[in-house]
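Ticket #4471: structure export looks truncated?
Reporter: QA, pipeline team
Priority: medium

Steps to reproduce: submit the single chain below to the structure queue and open the exported record.
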Amino acid sequence: QVQLMESGGGLVQPGGSLRLSCVASGSIFHIVSLGWYRRAPGDQRELVATINAGHATDYADSVKGRFTISRDNARNTLYLQMNSLKPEDTAVYYCTGRIYTTPREFADYWGQGTQVTVSS
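Actual output as written to the record:
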């Protein structure tokens, strides 16, 4: 079994910064790709950013230039650095990963989410 565990959420004022972390643990053979989603009240779940095994990244237009996704392969950890935060960024943030547990078996895994609130 693979588990993803987020941390780093909290309350921050507009213009502030937060760094989210997500640690993958369990029966991990290879991590293909990792990403962050978010869901605000009343909204659809939105893809925020992704990073693949070659460290290529992709961002939603709404966060481009403000957020940075990165990964530490040695620690099986995913990060999301969030700068210049806006009230519109308020949401529950989820990490997700496409992970092989054997050389031929993979699945998509999800964390439980961490709350980010941007408010004065």
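Status: closed, not a bug. The export was complete when the record was re-opened. Leaving a note from the reviewer for reference: The chain has no helices and eleven strands.
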